[in-house]
Specification:
mainly alpha; 11 helices; flat; 2 strands
Length: 351
């Protein structure tokens, strides 16, 4: 099991944990304050779903970020570490959007006398603090990513060798795998908001949207599998499915702003728009990288990605030398002796 083994890997884990704890604490307070301030008959009111949805997304978002941090450090994936900085920027944008959306929800409930009048004033400082904490965390993560880039560079160099073309192919592969992981979060984030706030549970669209979640997970898993196995027919099928997903999100994006449907989306219009736009951009980037990865099939990259766990010198030392090279001990009479002792005849004994 991987454990952080340097100051900068520990720094990334620490920043992610502290950021998640503070932000989720503020979100939990905002949720509790909101729920305890509701009054009257608010059961069928759409704005009451706003804060629970934001809280659920933030819980999932930060837990998923911690998983991606561990995964990036385990694989020494510099691209994924940089992607985590951009992921944090996405959470920052979402935090800024949620403040306006919650204020609108509170205002609407106040007009209906369904919430206590002073709730917004008590929640506002915490909602302002959330993007500030995330901005500070993003800055810290960018500095750490820069340091980790140098730390991981030598390990990747030894794994891929000095072949510049092979390094470019490996970089394309790393970008593609990282994109798949971020695609999952933003697709699921959009779907959660859509199911909880917008779609009616007795509607066929509700069940189709629920069914799309496991299907999407399977597609993303198979996309990574086909890339590692260099399966061209499978990759072509996946790329076609990406185009179908792109069409779906563009359709949803246009539909949200149609006058006949805008009222249904209004409680989460800006957050849904944010997630839809980011997802569309990610799908386009994923399609481009999928095509580039497919073009690289059969060019010698497959052995390098078959067993992708990279080890630093410290990890190899901890595992007894690694890769079949046993630790030598000096023999002052004969140069070097083998691991079991005895004369080496002036030669270095390597298993």
């Amino acid at each position: 099991m991987y454990k952080p083994n340097s100051p900068w890997t520990w720094a990334l884990v620490s920043v992610s944990l502290v950021q998640a704890a503070i932000v989720l604490g503020f979100e939990a307070y905002a949720f509790a304050r909101f729920q305890t301030s509701l009054q009257g008959d608010y059961g069928g009111s759409q704005p009451t779903h706003t804060i629970p949805t934001f809280l659920a997304l933030y819980i999932f978002g930060f837990v998923y970020q911690l998983i991606l941090v561990y995964d990036a450090l385990r694989l020494k994936n510099t691209i994924q570490v940089i992607g985590l900085c951009l992921y944090n920027v996405g959470l920052l944008v979402y935090a800024a959007v949620q403040m306006d959306q919650i204020q609108e929800a509170v205002t609407e409930l106040r007009q209906k006398n369904q919430i206590k009048p002073n709730v917004w004033e008590s929640e506002r400082p915490y909602l302002i603090a959330i993007p500030c904490v995330i901005a500070l965390g993003t800055l810290a993560m960018c500095i750490i990513a820069w340091k980790l880039y140098d730390e991981f560079a030598w390990t990747i160099y030894k794994h891929i060798s000095a072949d510049l073309r092979m390094k470019r192919r490996y970089l394309t592969f790393q970008i593609y795998i990282a994109l798949l992981k971020f695609d999952f979060f933003f697709f699921l984030g959009f779907t959660i908001q859509f199911i909880v706030v917008v779609v009616k549970h007795n509607n066929s669209e509700f069940y189709l949207t629920i069914a799309a979640i496991p299907v999407t997970i399977i597609i993303l898993i198979m996309a990574g599998y086909f890339t590692r196995k260099e399966n061209t027919p499978g990759m072509l099928a996946i790329i076609l499915l990406y185009f179908a997903g792109l069409a779906y999100f563009l359709f949803k994006l246009v539909r949200m702003y149609q006058p006949s449907r805008r009222l249904d989306y209004n409680p989460v219009l800006r957050p849904l728009t944010t997630f839809a736009v980011i997802t569309v951009i990610l799908i386009i980037l994923t399609i481009v990288n999928a095509c580039m990865c497919t073009a690289n099939f059969g060019r010698g990259l497959k052995p390098h990605i078959a067993g992708r766990k990279l080890e630093s010198e410290e990890e190899k030392f901890a595992h007894g030398g690694g890769n079949g090279v046993e630790m030598m001990r000096p023999n002052y009479n004969y140069g070097f002796a083998g691991p079991q002792g005895g004369s080496g005849g002036g030669r270095m004994t390597i298993d």
